[in-house]
Design goal:
about 575 residues; 7-stranded mixed beta sheet; 18 helices; about 60% helix; about 10% strand; globular
């Protein structure tokens, strides 16, 4: 029987990373929960086995329920009835299956009914579910909104809402408005305090809200009258049980049909303040968005994997000119690049997730007491690494998902354009990944300061100090050549001190950065597990070399007057 986890040993490989011991020790805090909760691990090895069991259950559900339902969900989609969103019929089966499997509230502490899983494992679950149905992954993974409530809400709010999510209730983050897309400072949904009822009231419209008719909403609203920037925005919790919010419209989209995208009208809706006023955008949404961006990276890796699977399966079966098309160089070249991008992108995803896990666990410990000086330094280090790696993981994997889905159709030829083949759905689903939760252009903007201030260069040089297997050393030498080019062109761009040029070449510098980091990650993976990653390491380094050298020549020879040729 198929299993979307165990069929791909490359996923389990990332549970054996050296940082996992530190992550698990921080999450489990001396394994004290074992005395109170029967499913809590007693030591590190027990925790890893728990993760593998949960992943195996998820892989089974994904392969044998979610994937078989995916075409029906894509064709039916959600619909609107009397101001309420109704899921596609098979989506209800999917939700029921994941609830019965205990796959909700997975990141929350056990005292609230959660599984206390680290972000690495949650990302793996997201990848597996996305490979089966990327649209359903959106619905399921929005449970991670509860992390923001856990971090910034009161203990009373935690006890009120977190057990409900752990039991399977759904969540959404209501940020975007008709006049406030990427520029969330323009949010104008109004929040006013009701003195009589001792609550907040929300009025206005939200647009493009994923899973918008959820049970529990986190809502960005303007609480400070007369303000028009981010300092006037606060975060609120809206409970669907209280009423006051209707679905006005469900968007008809290119892809992810099973994931409802709603326009909502708030009419004097009762809400609770989450955290403090004025910090909604400045602090809380930034934390929420970083988590969401890592979720999209995992969603992207799942589709990268499924697109590769579909292309490989078809190439092995399809015969032309007397031989299987997988024997044609043009086809096996395409497949090898798909697999290399998948393996390198997955490595970047889980490296980022590990950084997030360490700093989030230390922040959680800090809420209950003081950190040691060493722990404070560790917190600072991994916060910086997580902030730097998140825009790379989201941006590059969302682009790779699009490329792999495109290539899967190419391998299918004309059949790939026919609706009965899955590759067309993967292509439609993937297109949104590089748009929502911050376009790739916005990921470039987020990464640019780390490019210019040398953070990435320092990280790369530290990574270069790692040892690789003897047969991989020639590849590492070639990566060192790319690093020299990167350092050279970066120094030149900084010396010119021309902000327009920096912004113009930012995407190319971003891609050079990511290509080099992923090359070093995949070389490390291939050193530790050559049977899984040696081929991808060889292919990916060559891919990175071609990309980086092209970007280097472009930036190196670009003059200020040349930019005028690109203006519309």
């Amino acid at each position: 029987m198929a299993n979307y986890y165990s069929d791909h040993p490359e996923i389990a490989f990332h549970l054996d990373h050296p940082l996992m011991k530190r992550i698990v020790d921080l999450k489990e805090r001396g394994y004290a929960d074992a005395a109170q909760y029967p499913d809590a691990p007693v030591d590190y090895e027990d925790a890893i086995e728990n993760y593998k069991r949960i992943l195996d259950i998820t892989g089974d559900v994904a392969a044998n329920i979610l994937e078989p339902n995916s075409e029906s969900v894509d064709l039916e989609g959600p619909h609107l009835e009397n101001g309420r969103m109704i899921y596609a019929s098979k989506t209800f089966e999917n939700i029921d299956a994941t609830r019965k499997a205990g796959l909700h509230g997975v990141s929350m502490p056990r005292r609230y009914g959660g599984l206390n899983l680290p972000n690495v494992t949650f990302s793996m679950l997201s990848e597996v579910i996305s490979a089966a149905d990327a649209g359903f992954q959106n619905i399921w993974s929005l449970q991670s909104c509860i992390d923001t409530l856990y971090e910034f809400g009161s203990e009373e709010q935690r006890q009120k809402y977190i057990p409900r999510v752990c039991a399977g209730e759904s969540m959404s983050m209501d940020l975007t408005e008709p006049d406030a897309g990427s520029d969330l400072q323009r949010v104008m949904l109004k929040a006013t305090f009701d003195e009589k009822e001792n609550c907040w009231r929300l009025n206005g419209v939200k647009r493009f809200i994923t899973n918008g008719d959820s049970d529990i909403h986190l809502v960005l609203a303007r609480s400070e009258e007369g303000t028009r920037d981010g300092r006037g925005l606060s975060m609120f919790i809206y409970d669907k049980r209280n009423g006051g919010v209707d679905v006005r419209h469900i968007e008809h989209k290119l892809g992810i049909h099973g994931s409802p995208t709603c326009e909502l009208t708030y009419k004097n809706a009762k809400a609770e303040l989450c955290g403090s006023t004025r910090l909604g955008l400045i602090k809380y949404v930034m934390a929420l968005m970083n988590g969401a961006r890592l979720g999209i990276a995992a969603q992207s890796v799942g589709v990268e994997q499924e697109a590769y699977n579909e292309g490989l399966k078809y190439a092995r079966e399809r015969q032309q000119f007397g031989q299987k098309i997988i024997e044609f160089p043009a086809v096996f070249d395409m497949l090898s690049r798909m697999k290399a991008k998948l393996d390198a992108g997955r490595s970047l995803l889980y490296q980022t997730a590990r950084y997030v896990d360490i700093y989030k666990a230390l922040e959680d410990i800090q809420r209950d007491g003081k950190l040691s000086p060493e722990e404070r330094q560790e917190l600072k280090k991994y916060t910086r690494l997580a902030d730097a790696f998140t825009p790379l993981a989201k941006g590059m994997n969302s682009e790779y998902a699009n490329q792999n889905a495109y290539d899967a159709i190419s391998i299918h030829g004309g059949s790939g354009f026919i609706m009965e083949y899955k590759s067309q759905r993967l292509y439609r689903d993937a297109r949104i990944f590089s748009i929502y939760e911050g376009t790739t252009q916005l990921q470039v903007v987020a990464a640019l300061r780390y490019i210019i201030n040398g953070t990435y260069l320092s990280i790369i040089k530290e990574m270069l100090e790692g040892e690789v297997a003897d047969d991989l050393k020639p590849l590492k030498t070639r990566v060192e050549g790319l690093v020299a080019q990167y350092e050279d062109v970066l120094a030149e761009v900084k010396a010119e001190n021309d902000q327009e040029k920096i912004d113009f070449v930012a995407r190319r510098l971003y891609e050079m950065t990511a290509d080099i980091i992923m090359s070093l990650l995949i070389l490390d993976d291939a050193t530790r597990s050559p049977e899984l990653f040696a081929k991808s390491a060889n292919v990916y380094v060559r891919h990175a070399e071609a990309e980086c050298c092209g970007h280097y020549v472009f930036v190196k020879h670009l003059k200020k007057e040349d930019i005028e040729n690109y203006r519309a």
